[in-house]
Structures are given as structure tokens and as C-alpha cells.
Amino acid sequence: MVFDADASQQAAISRALAGTHVLIDGPPGTGKSQTIANIIAGMAAQGRRVLFVAEKRAAIEAVTERLAEADLAHLVFDLQ
To answer: Nearest 10 degrees: CA dihedral of 7, 14, 5, 3?
Structure first.
């Protein structure tokens, strides 16, 4: 993981990395972007691809900014 994660975030990350489809949902400030960035980084480390979609552009920007913080911006293909 490139960012810290609590137990519930680690469970979601583990499920995604094991090949289970996951839906990350929650109120603001709960670590959704951090969790998704960890999933994307983990998938990339396994040579896998991820399709990340969000209802709001701000959510996509939050995840891409997190990946940029971890020097992983090159993993992103942002299709608007």
C-alpha cells in the first residue's frame, strides 16, 4: 500500500486485489480516495488494470491527486 489504511480499508483493498469487484461508498472524509488509490496502486503492481468511475468529477480528481502524491500519476488515463 502506498497510503495508510485502517482495518475496513484494508479489507476492501484485499478483496479488490483478490479479484472481487468492490464498490467504495461513504460520507466525506472517510478515506474513500485513499482506499481507491491503494487499490489502483496494488493492481498496477500486479500488472492489472482498473476502471475507476465516479458520479462527481471531484472524486476522480481526489484519487488522481493521491496517485500523483505517490509518484504514480503515470498510471492514470483520464477520459473526460
So the answer is: 170
Type of residue numbered 40 = I
DSSP-derived secondary structure for 51-66: ----SSHHHHHHHHHH
pTM for the predicted model, two decimal places:
0.92
Q: What is the pLDDT of residues 67-76, one digit of tens each?
A: 999 999 999 9
Over residues 51-72, the pLDDT tens digits come to 999 999 999 999 999 999 999 9
User: How many CB atoms lie under 10 A from the CB of residue 52?
Assistant: 15
Listed residue (74, 11, 15, 8) closest to 41, CA to CA: 74
Kindly state the cell numbers that stand for 40.
489502483
Biggest CA-to-CA distance, the chain: 33
**How is residue 22 written as a grid cell?**
468492490
